[in-house]
Amino acid sequence: MKIHPEILKGMLWVLAMFCFAMFVIFILDFQKPVREGLTQFHKVELDYCRITEKQIHSYPGGRGSYELFTTNCQEAFFPILFQSKDYGVAKSVIQIDSYISKTANSSDVTIIKKGKTYNLKLRNLDEVDHRFEDAWIVLKLSFGFIILSFLIRFLKKRQVI
């Protein structure tokens, strides 16, 4: 089957838009601060540290907000991003004057609030990184447009449309 030059030009245009969209997705990376904070939280060791401050930050792009906390052991702020089953508990127990313990490179976190112990798990880093999902959406749309252009060309040839 011979490809009409206009169809070929359209396919190249769609693929160029795909490449540009991929470039934008990976360069802008709106979730980078959140992902870096969670990575830092995974790596750090906290040994019975008192939570001294909480802050609320907005997700980039206006997609809601998340909370950060710091302790008397570390000056860095860590995001309160726990697995979905633990998220509600985490928000209620990570308060100022609660105590937190965590081993380095682990997702298991122990929080002590008013004498009660809570064992929670941090979110996986893969759950925070959505760049690849966005890229797949753009890739599927690009190929969808290319297939649609072939389909339209085929139907015009058969004089269906």
Q: Which features does this protein show?
A:
alpha+beta, 45% helix, 161 residues, 4 helices
Summarize the structure.
By secondary structure, the chain is α+β, with helices and mostly antiparallel strands. The chain contains 4 helices and 6 strands; from the N terminus they run H-H-E-E-E-H-E-E-E-H. It is 45% helix and 24% strand.
Overview of this protein structure:
The protein is α+β, with helices and mostly antiparallel strands. It folds into 2 domains: 5-29 and 130-157, no CATH class; 32-127, DNA Polymerase III, Chain A, domain 2 (Roll), CATH 3.10.150. It has helices at residues 5-28, 32-43, 84-93, 131-157, and strands spanning 46-58, 65-71, 78-79, 99-102, 108-113, 116-121. The protein has a 6-stranded antiparallel sheet with strand order 3-2-1-4-5-6. Strand 1 and strand 2 (65-71) form a beta hairpin. It is elongated and about 80 Å long. The model has no long low-confidence stretch (mean pLDDT 82).
Layout: helices, strands, pairs:
Elements (H helix, E strand, L loop, with lengths): L4 H24 L3 H12 L2 E13 L6 E7 L6 E2 L4 H10 L5 E4 L5 E6 L2 E6 L9 H27 L4
Antiparallel strand pairs: 1-2, 1-4, 2-3, 4-5, 5-6
Q: If strands are numbered along the chain, what order do they take across the biggest sheet?
A: 3-2-1-4-5-6
In this structure, how is the largest beta sheet organized?
Answer: 6 strands, antiparallel
The number of strands is 6
Identify low-pLDDT runs. none
Q: Can you tell me the overall shape?
A: elongated
Written as H for each helix and E for each strand, in order along the chain, the element string is HHEEEHEEEH
- Amino- and carboxy-terminal Cα gap: 20 Å
Mean pLDDT: 82
How many structural units, i.e. domains?
A: 2
- In terms of structural class, how would the helical and strand content be classed? alpha+beta
The number of helices is 4
Helix content: 40-55%
